[in-house]
Amino acid sequence: MSNYVESLGQLWGPLLVLGQIALFTLVLLLSIAFLLLLDRKVWAGVMMRKGPNVVGPFGLMQSFADFGKFLLKEIVIPAGANKTVFLIAPILTCTLAFAAWAAIPVAPGTASGTSWVISNLNVGVLYLFAISSLGVYGIIMGGWASNSKYPFLGALRSAAQMVSYEVSIGFVIVTVILLVGSMNLTDIVNAQEGGIWTWHAFSFQHFPLILVMFPMFIIFFVSALAETNRPPFDLPEAESELVAGYQVEYGSTPYLLFMLGEYLNIVLMCALMTILFLGGWHGPFALGEEFVRDHPFVNAFAGLFWFMFKILFLFIMFAMVKAIVPRYRYDQLMRLGWKIFLPTSLVAVLIVSGYVVYLGVQS
Amino acid sequence: MAVIAFYLIAAVVLVSALSVIMARNPVHSVLWLILAFFSSAGLLVLIGAEFLAMLLVVVYVGAVAVLFLFVVMMLDVDFVELKRGTLRYWPFAVLVGIIFAAEIVLASVIGTADMETNFDASPGAETNAEAIGQVMYTQYLLLFQMAGIILLVAMVGAIVLTLRHRPETKRQNIAKQTSRRRSDAYELKDPTPGQGI
Q1: Which of A277, A292, B178, B188 shows the greatest Cβ crowding within 10 Å of its Cβ?
Q2: Contact partners, residue B67, CB within 8 Å, separation at least 6
Q3: Is the ipTM value over 0.85, yes or no?
Q4: B127 contacts on A by Cβ (under 8 Å)
Q5: Which residues in chain B (19-78) have CB-CB distances under 8 A to chain A?
Q6: Which residues have CB under 8 Å from A132's CB, separation 6+?
Q7: What is the pTM of this model?
């Protein structure tokens, strides 16, 4: 009997993790459905259109109608395509986009120094960086396996683009890691506790560094646009040149998976920016130690609210950029990545490390 | 639990490594190679070296293998044609294989006696990254710097070999473009009728 109870106890841990994964997946899928609609509404608003407004009140059910349509269509695989790789590509994109969320802490835990996260990794930032650098494979595989010219061109463009912008993203992340002294995402968020002036984008507590960290935030934002193939850097799918790039031959559920992966990556980048630069779950003013100690659950839900609010703010910025800025030419894209962002972020790493060593923010 | 995970991941590594050389399509080979890299990162996570694992994924899977894939996709090489003559070399292949196997057997028979099987992935530090940093920037600083210089020389060499200055290509000078004012671009004229400018 005691053996049985013991094994049940061992089972409890994995079951809890499975439950957390199911909860994350469900919440993410539902939010993506509405964020997609928000994206289209913002885009339409800038162009003085109404946007989707037929299905449900204010068009709220539009994404679900689209979902049903994608699922019910026939999956068409081109005759010359490499079938296995063709189907693995969208699945890979979507799986990786979900996998990255395992390390994202969304709210403060009830004990200090903990957080609501599926896996509290010591190398959380690196994990996210690694997973997002794998995202390029979905696109290359899809473009190659389609056995057609436009998809292949789109895939090649995207490979070069994503690899270039990862470099500057890496250096920007290094500046934040230097300031915090840890690669754990929970530690990075907790280092920004205490109000809007301690967020890394502003860094008033490291006073001269605001001149470095705010441009780093901007560089990260622009690089995130390029990394997720959003306009103005949507060259892999530039519809006026490549029809739809790597997605040309895809329809039905595989296309749905590509699109889902793309939007998950956008929200992931927003979450990463929130964690690295905008203080994660911390509100713009400190709640006070006593209040946090007495009301841990209020604190947790307030944290969850702020985290989602900041992600939503950044997502609307993404949508606005899509509506306002015209597409870059390919050589301009490469110039921006290699000749401007890379040197700037490299200099920033030097300055921040000099600050950390000589002005001693860290022991 | 860890043992099951080890055998599962190790099996994936072996199968994908074997598939790298068995696959007929070179692009499939590279994809199998990527799976092998990724699973090796899984093995590193299992022994607690999570920093090394993530670096393996970022560097090898995220950058090096992308370039492999890029090159293999771009090159239009008929690999069936290339492979036609390879059977002639089987005695060499067998010889190399035997030497390789013998070395591994020798190493595992002699080596296991003093090899630690249960080692600490982050000795003397809280995390794996700190442990590596403490050794790399103190004890092995010279080697680390040397590796950096070798990479720099390789990079400069590659740029020197491929850089060509072509005077006929039109380049865009962004600073010049943005500093253009309205007065530089055009001029208003008021032509009198019948006279022109």
Answers
A1: A277
A2: none
A3: no
A4: 122-123, 183
A5: 25, 27-28, 31, 34, 38, 50-51, 54-55, 57-58, 61-63, 66, 69-70, 73-74
A6: A100, A166, A227, A265, A268, A269
A7: 0.83
